[in-house]
Write a structure and sequence with these properties.
Largest sheet: 4 strands, mixed
Helix content: 40-55%
Mean pLDDT: 93
Radius of gyration: 21 Å
Distance between the termini: 44 Å
Strand content: 15-25%
Number of strands: 10
Number of helices: 10
Structural class: alpha+beta
Low-confidence stretches: none
Strand order of the largest sheet: 1-4-5-8
């Protein structure tokens, strides 16, 4: 891992520094920088490897160390976007169980997730309910000791390869967000199907799900009836900061590539790095990365102290994802025509970063969250 000075910041304990260095060494040996055409198989393989390596245990359980999650995602993203995805979805997909599951649910699902033996998915978004979660239409009605699910979910990461899905549905205890509950639906359950596989610019398993009179035991509900929205938001609060950390990993990878390119590319009897315009761009890239990192690890540290991080996590995600997009774009520009050749490092990063400005709360939503929290504090 190049440039690890940030690990000396007071946000971290020695165990975090050890974790980051050990993972980087492991990733050098076990994580391919590129994947073949069978993304599903590669993703499954990465989940198994991460489980066997002992890394997935950090993503599940009663106490999730946010700084550890962020360091792991940043480190993996620097090596491979798909490896970061595989790790993150094990945590996000099972996060509701970690936070609100029964002891039986935790024992049955989390132990397998941590070992890389079961793949999880987080099914929240719908065709007409993305950022506006309270508008969801997928329904859940109780019939005796069963719950019957009807409706659709879309943009579901790990859709098609997951062994189980944490599904949020309208259970009707109250209007809006207060009438949503969370349920565990296992792959292969009658009435549950993968309606469509979705292909995006940075390939990873993604699908639209359909539930038609899908019956599951009531014991598969996570937490109390009507508390699914709270569970979903708590889950996202844990992992939103880690999205920002993944963006940092992408940005650092892009800066490494840009530095190598700038110092070796010969132009007009000098290197690209000798031009002041190049130096100014490199300086701006470094500034963006460090300022984003400070926001990311402030939010992670603050959450680990048991404090609210709604505003801080939103700031971190907004700054890091938008900043990484700019850093990567600048790196592509430095590579010239080579920068848009398929599967070049910076070209791959250019595709991988784009979705992070949308999922787990688009940049525009983060702006609203920050302003709302500021106004709330001002009125107090």
């Amino acid at each position: 891992m190049s440039d690890t000075q940030y690990l000396d910041w007071p946000f971290f304990e020695e165990r975090h520094r050890t974790l980051a260095r050990e993972l980087d060494a492991w990733a050098h040996e076990n994580v391919p920088h590129a994947h073949g055409p069978d993304v599903d198989a590669q993703c499954k393989s990465l989940v198994r490897a991460l489980g066997q390596g002992g890394w997935l245990k950090h993503a599940v359980g009663d106490h999730i160390d946010t700084r550890a999650i962020c360091l792991i995602r940043e480190t993996l993203a620097r090596h491979s976007g798909l490896a970061d995805f595989a790790f993150a979805m094990q945590g996000l997909g099972s996060g509701a169980i970690s936070l609100a599951g029964t002891p039986e649910q935790k024992e049955h699902y989390l132990t397998r997730v941590a070992r890389g033996e079961a793949i999880s998915a987080f099914a929240l978004s719908e065709p007409e309910a993305g950022s506006d979660v309270a508008a969801m239409a997928c329904s859940a009605r109780v019939e005796g000791n069963e719950v019957v699910l009807d409706g659709e979910k879309t943009w579901i990461s790990n859709g098609g390869i997951a062994d189980f899905y944490v599904v949020f549905a309208r259970s009707g205890e109250a209007p809006g967000a207060r009438g949503i509950s969370a349920f565990i639906v296992e792959a292969g359950t009658p009435g549950f199907e993968i309606a469509e596989r979705i292909h995006v610019i940075a390939p990873h398993p993604l699908a639209r799900l359909r539930f038609t009179n899908c019956r599951i035991p009531l014991t598969q509900r996570i937490g109390a009836a009507g508390e699914g929205f709270k569970v979903a938001m708590r889950t996202l609060d844990v992992f939103r900061t880690s999205v920002a950390a993944a963006s940092l990993g992408f940005a650092r990878c892009a800066l490494d590539a840009a530095m190598e390119r700038a110092t070796t590319r010969k132009m007009f009897n000098q290197t690209l790095a000798d031009f002041q315009l190049t130096q100014a761009k490199l300086a701006q890239m470094a500034l963006s990365i460090d300022s984003s990192a400070l926001l990311v690890y402030r939010a992670a540290w603050q959450r680990d102290q048991g404090k609210s991080v709604t505003r801080e996590a939103a700031m971190a995600k907004l700054a890091a994802t938008e900043g990484a997009q700019q850093v990567i774009d600048a790196a592509v520009q430095m590579f010239g025509g080579l920068g848009v050749v398929s599967e070049q490092t910076v070209e791959r990063l250019y595709r991988e970063i784009r979705a992070l400005r949308i999922y787990e709360g688009a940049s525009e939503v983060q702006q609203l969250i920050i302003a709302r929290e500021m106004l709330k504090a001002h009125a107090a």
